[in-house]
Amino acid sequence: MKDNQTIAISVAEVSKLFRLQKQRTFKELLPALFGGQKAVEHFWALQNVNLKIKKGETVGIIGPNGAGKSTLLKLMAGVTKPTKGKITVNGKIAPLIELGAGFHPELTGRENIFLNGIILGLSKKEVTDRFSEIVDFAELWDFIDQPIKHYSSGMYLRLAFSVAVHTKPDILLIDEILAVGDESFKQKCFKRMDEFKKAGVTIILVSHALGQIQEFCTRAIYLNEHRVIADGGVKEVTEKYLNGGVN
Amino acid sequence: MSMIKLFSQYHELLAQLTSREIKQRYKQSVLGYAWVILNPFFQMLVMAFVYNIIMRVPDLGVPYSIYLYAGLLPWTLFNNSLTGSVNSLVGNAGLLSKIYFPREIFVMSTMLAKMVDFALSCSIFIIFMIYFQIPVTWNILWVIPILLIQHLFTYALSLFLAAANLFYRDIQYLLNLVLLIWMYLTPVIYATEFFPEKYQWIFKLNPMAIIINAYRQVILAGGAPNLKSLGLALLLSLGILTLAYKFFKKVEGLFADVV
Fold it and tell me: Dihedral, CA atoms, A151, A155, A156, A158, nearest 10 degrees?
């Protein structure tokens, strides 16, 4: 009962096994089966991970490529299920795992705002209410009724980010997306994130930019070889990562 | 039960995905949505020419073109729903691996888009009914439960096909072949009576045969449908749906990993 009020995400003894299915068609599968090859290959993306993330914390997740960072975020977002263990999430999640999920190039900016907003869990009315705020933030009033296939990649990202941050989430999951966009828009995004932080939104950020994490987060988690190596203050953990990263 | 909960929570998402599906399809074509009506219409004209003028079908009580149309339209709905659904998860790989909501929404939105197509393509059929002065009785209201049974049956197969296709892409090619054979084993272009009597038991086990015969019975002949067959089709559909749904939910957690 008490956990519900203070814990945003609890990850208890979670392991994730991936089955790499090498043969995608019968043509590949049948000879492989007769030839005695294994049809699937197994590997553990995460092993025995335990975490409790409190409400209002800003947590940075660091580690080398292939450590399991993105898998952890996907598990938290609920798109994939743990093989072992249990994940409990209290609150509404906005996954900024990849911006513009569900955007369709043939549809206009306006249509895509509604589509993406509703995919991210808003109601139609909520999108209508926030519509001008979203377009203001993205600075795209001039192009809002054009199909987004005519947008530049910067415009596309601005629109996608703007929709995502206007969903009023309790928990924000961010995967490497702040590395994009021009300097002024990046500033704007961080300002927005600061507002979220002040408003008590739990933020989980995966990034290779240690500077970003040191500046922004209150806690860091270092993942390597599918396990949690260190968890604690930003300074200690990033130092440990840098030292560990040498060998 | 879970269906009702799903609808109340996700009906707006379902509407958005359905309208995306409808809008995107004909955005760059000149005739746009008219293709939805024109396609089955021309298909019917060609077939009617072949079977009426060249092959000479015997008298069916109504003009062959409208007899054919009454079977071809629901078959086209069935065919398009399945071929659309089989790709509904694979085609939404981006969404599938990023955001969670119940995955059957993808299948449902594809089917809904095809239902809209079907409703539109029926417009020419209604003009045919008026032109040939086919008498309409109250029995035509049976169309609603028959359509519902067709929908259940299609949904059941769609859930299974969409999930299976994620694991092995052969399913979509296999489906085209199966549908081609299936169409000839269903009284779409011919009447049940034309089929050799000793093989007519096939139709009793084929829900699509029962469904198409029922449509013709209530629309063209103005009679009540064979309730025993229709009940069997309903039971069969519900049975397959239960299994397909269980399978779908069982493998749902793996979708994002294999896509």
Answer: -160
